[in-house]
Predict the 3D structure of the following.
Amino acid sequence: MNRIYVLSGVSGAGKDTLAKYLMEFDNDVVQVQWSAIAKRTYERWYNIPKGSLDDREFRLRQIPGMDKTYLQVLIDAYHAWNDIDPRLTIRPTLRVINRLLKDGKDVVITDTRKKEEADDLVELVNRSRVIELFNVHVFGREGEAALSSDDNLDYNLRKLRECSSSDLSFVNSAGVDKVANFATELLLKGYWYDG
């Protein structure tokens, strides 16, 4: 049975770090980001190296000649594209997810921000009898600021609970060793590790 791990939480909570460990410990786990299409588009427009916008520190840099960071431009695009068509980046991303699942891969998603992303994931899982969804809420550092793109977090968590095999929480407070232990337990048993 294929697994989809949906890691939710505010920006900076440690979702990508947890995803990295899941992929490191299991070669059949592949990370998919709803925002990848927007990131690759902006990297081309601003002539920056491919993959740069996946780096949190880089996203916080000021864009040369502008009064905004790369992150602010991505958030602006998130809202503008949502006004045009809420599923503009969702449809191609779902095709990637479906292809990976058909190839026998498990998928970890770290940036479910739009309600439509959660809705379409629930529909995908409900249509399939061979997908197991793990809904993991990652709590990060104390005082981490939520972004406007985090506004739908509560809705998405509730929506994903409708079809999840496991609804888990992970408090990312004790460093990378605890993240690694949680990733191992999630892969092996699929339930909360209290390390």
